[in-house]
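Hi support team,

I submitted a single chain yesterday and got back a structure, but I'm not sure I'm reading the token output correctly. Could someone confirm the output below corresponds to the sequence I sent? I've pasted both exactly as they appear in my results page.

Thanks,
R.
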Amino acid sequence: MGDTHGSESLLFLTDEQIRQGIEGMYFAYRGLTSEPDRILATMAYGRAHHRAVHFINRAPGTTVTNLLEILGVTKQSLNRVLRTLIEDGLVESRVGKVDKRERNLFLTEDGTRLEARLSDAQRTRMRSAYREAGPEAVAGFRRVLEAMMDKEMRRRNAALRGNKT
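Hi R., thanks for writing in. Yes, this is the structure output for that exact sequence:
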């Protein structure tokens, strides 16, 4: 297993090396969200709207309760976001077939187009970074991300990828 910082051991990192990793995550996230943020700003939307659209696209018919659990936001906050997306014709809320109290969420055609614009920019950036880093780094990066997730988030992440964990 090689490392990218000379004689650094992957088993022991100094506080400064950990800090650099944290800062790297902040800057990488900023890069990953910069183009979608520009698109969202033209619509007076924010990242909460983006996350909602993303996960509704990944799991069409998801419930409001499920989306609350994935996003980790308050019900009031999510309701504000969903109300805007529904009023603007990007998301459709349907009464549950089994439980009439449930609301199942779907993207409309306009919502699907917006999601594609937002995620295309991110896929382009990720694809470029993955190519530059190489397959071993990509596998290591995925392991690091998964190790940073809480157990429940790891389970949800695996479920989105179609893996049962």
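A quick pointer for reading it: The chain is about 65% helix and 5% strand. Let us know if anything else looks off.

Best,
Support desk
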